[in-house]
Amino acid sequence: MSVPFRLGAVMLAALLVQLTVFVDVRFFGVAPELLSLLAVFAAFLIGSERGPLVAFIAGLIWDVYLPTPLGVTALTLAIVAYAVAKFNEGLFQDSRTHLVMVVFVASGTAVLGYALIGGIMGSAELLRIDMFRIALIVGSVNAVLTPLASPIMVWALGGEGTMR
Amino acid sequence: MVLPQGGGRDRGRHRLVLLALTAITLLSLDLSGFGPIGTAQRWMRDLLHPVAEVTGAVVSPFANAWNAIFDYGDLAAERDQLREDLDDALGAQLAAEAEREAFRRLLEATEITYLPTIPTETASVVRTAVGNFDDHVITIDKGSNHGIRPGMAVVTGAGLVGRVDRVDAITANVQLLSDPNLVIGVRLASTDEVGLGRTIPDDPLTFVIDRGLEWPEGDDQTLFPAIGSVVVTAASSRYPAEIPLGRITDVYLDPENDIAMIVEVELANDVRDLSYVTVLLALGVDQVPMVPTPSTSIPLNIEVPQEPEAGQ
After folding, report:
1. What does pLDDT average to over chain A?
2. Å from A49 to nearest chain B CA?
3. Whole-prediction pTM
4. Which of A107, B181, B291, B312 is deepest in the core (most CB within 10 A)?
């Protein structure tokens, strides 16, 4: 099974779980962002050249279901993924703890970035004080989901950048 | 973990610029209403809808178990409250029937005829908000194949719930009345005045009419709208007229404008807990007028589609 096919399957599965499970299962009223999680993982595992492309596609898929114009999440996740990859390239060693921290910060940043870009694009209601709470919870829950998502993404990416 | 990539840094930066330009192009096209972009999104949602339905059915026991565990306290309190409400309801049944009769008479007195003539489509709520920022949106299991179009009013037996927003072939999104950005043209049944209002942020049960109502000269109490009287959609609104919204709970002077009146309304519907809704298959005017006009001087501006177009 090729890498694009596996990545597509994982993205589709993440989208379906997001649309079904996390409509009802919420943490303090906030749902985790699985496609953000995949985007951060992709950047972390395959670097700044291809990571943002995977993140862009994941964001585009999620955009189809969000009320903001097509491209807001895609743009946000591509930028966050590039930042994650560049940050990670400068590190001499990494660990699972490090990955969890990166997922926490990057997922929260993606929420804030989505609100900011969406706000600039005309959805001013996204820019509210509540977005910091949402970012904190999304970052935390995505960080908790990291051990579960890690082997799935390593498999989807064909073993590239396997965890140390 | 990340493999060294010769020349990848520059390529990565260039690729990011290309992705950003692509995203901005898509954003611009979508914002300008470029047809193929919307069509492609509708196709994807329609294609995935059956898969999402099956997945939802498979995972629903997990979601139910989650809610049972983490919302148990709320459920117990809700059960106790429902018992009290049932006792109250049984005692107030006769009074409620009398009120319904009074409301029916009110509608007859104002020569409202839209209710029997407008076709409706009943739909069930497929899901609530999917994202973290779209709190005031639900998805229903009827779409353009059933004659539903953007802008149509969505109601329950109690009154207005919201308006149809995005429409796919077999599903549609409804912008709920709890969205403070949704402005509604309303008429006060007790005084026949028309104004514009919206819900208060973080309080989906309170609707505030803060535009279009003037404070009576000389504080004439007889000209105030009666507390407890009904508020309905105005004929000059973008929705069919005379859809109930709720009852007036408070009337006061606008602190920022001493000739304007603010009216608070307790909404008849709690939009946070909906299972079924009804879509009125009638298109009203496109936008809420900036200056409200008396509803009695304007004919109902309603277009009833004759034949739902399939495949849109």
Report:
1. 90
2. 4
3. 0.79
4. A107
